[in-house]
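Hello forum,

I keep getting stuck at the same step: I have a sequence, I want structure tokens, and every attempt I make locally crashes halfway through. Rather than fight my setup again tonight, could one of you with a working pipeline run this one for me? It's a single chain of 477 residues.
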Amino acid sequence: MTSQPFLLAIPLLTAVLVWFIQGKVRRWLPVTATVLNLSILILGYLQGTPSIGPWLAINGLSAVIAGITAFVGFTAALYSVGYVRRHSQEQVDLDTVSQERTYFVLLLVFYDSLLAVVLLNNIFMTWGAIELTALASVLLVDWKGTKDNHEAAWKYLIIMEFGGLLALLGLLLLVGLQPNASVATTWTGLLAVAKSIPASVARLAFVLILAGFGTKAGLVPFHAWLPDAHSQAPSPISAMLSGIKLNCGLYGILRTQQVLQGGGNGPFADHTLATLGFLTVAISTLMTLYQKDFKRLFAYSSSENLGVAAIAFSLGPLGVIAGYLQMMNHSLIKSMLFYHSGELQHAWGSTEMEGLSGVARALPWTGQTLVLGMLAIAGAPPFGLFISEFMVIFALVKTGSPLLAALLLLFLALLFANFLRYSISMGYGEISTRLNRTVRPLPTLTATLPTGLHLVGTLAFGMLLPVLWSLGILLGR
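Reply #2:
Ran it on my machine without issues. Output:
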């Protein structure tokens, strides 16, 4: 994929254009940039020529997350067109022109830094890109400038920076003992010399990196920023935080796990990652029991899904495939739900679930797809998340951990029951009196197209993968 530099250059050049160009066309420039990037990435996949060099590199893991980033980045930019226009119409007393320009420039910088995380081969440049995602997104969390926005942004920033320092210490430990520092500062170079790293150093470094990048991935107990930031951020940014940024945090952990596996310390990395994954699933599932804010509910669900992915990546080749599917399906479904949160907040005036009902009657498209999305994120068939979670449980049984598989199944069943209850109470019944009757009954194309694409995507994973899998088994016979 020799086009990787263009993937990083296009959003930055577009951000410059957004800063200087006036008028409504400004809102569509990020959509154009993300469509170009998505097209370039698809063509690169079709060519099947991965690029590895001193600065840029792409492997199976980075290819999956880059694809997720490009797709969710496109739908977030598209949804932002109507979202920002509506915000500008409601805030007549503010300098909305300046607000719009700031929003779209930051969105492009955030998107570009997310892509850089998985495309850069240099370890410390990857770390820097992850830190840049935090700096860009913290300004987006604070974009509306309310008191709650300020508090969530500061909490987010402090936790992110603390996590970044821990991760940097871990990376310095891994690199610092290598005789050839220039080789060991790349992921491919570090993997090549992994066996020369003392086991005690490698394990300590992994713990530090797991804690540091675990804050970025929303893993328990480093997830305290997640519900506040998601609840206060603009809905398209919440979609990017949940659908892309959490994956990029997990990416840093998984690249380090690969180094430990290459150096003979794989069991330690796998067991540590799985333990943190189970803790994340347990705590996050319990936190969904008594939520009053639907954006906070979706945020805790994000943490739970990343916990399942962490477990998956500790279970060998089958688990790795399940982990990829878990990340892809979670990103598709959760981004869709956060787009819906923007429609709900606009129509009902807040993100509080108390008294919120009749969404399917008041806003038919939003309500019906909201219910489907909430069932999908809970792991209901025939959606894609059911397949990935089934594969994780199967991998646990196959690796000789049936009790852990039963425990995970118990938490997944509890989460399903919670989301089923919430989806029925929000989607059906009488239309609550909080509804703003002036809201158009049909959302705009910039709202329906992103949610429709995400819903079709996760249905395709859930319905086509079993067929392809069965055909593969039959052909194998």
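Residues 265-477 form one domain. If your local run keeps crashing, start a new thread with the error log.
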